[in-house]
Amino acid sequence: MKITIFTKIVDHLWNLSPQWNDAIYNEATRLLGVYPYIFDYPDYSGLPRSISNRLSPDAVDAIQWALASPPFKNKRNFSNVLKQKLKELGEVIR
Fold it and tell me: Which burial class, exposed, middle or buried, applies to 59 when counting CB atoms under 10 A from its CB (0-12, 13-18, 19+)?
């Protein structure tokens, strides 16, 4: 994955919903098992098709895992967690 694509993904997901960063909201959705914003086929949370069509299954898994993680303090923290998970799953960011 190119760094420009990674940056666009992070920007899109970070700006998608401030609710993802709200600890109370995240805890309530976890307990109820209701997730209004699910990053999965077919629309990948509104990510442009030019990007979503290029995502590997490992990249999708890493993004889903990062979005299900505890709330993030800032965008940089979210980006670092996502980047680390991508590396763990073998997705190279160049």
Answer: buried
Q: pTM of the entire structure?
A: 0.78
| Domain assignment present for 93 | no
36 in a structural domain: yes
Averaged over 40-65, what is the pLDDT? 89
Statement: residue 35 has pLDDT above 70: no
State how far the Cα of 67 lies from the Cα of 14, in Å rounded to an integer: 10
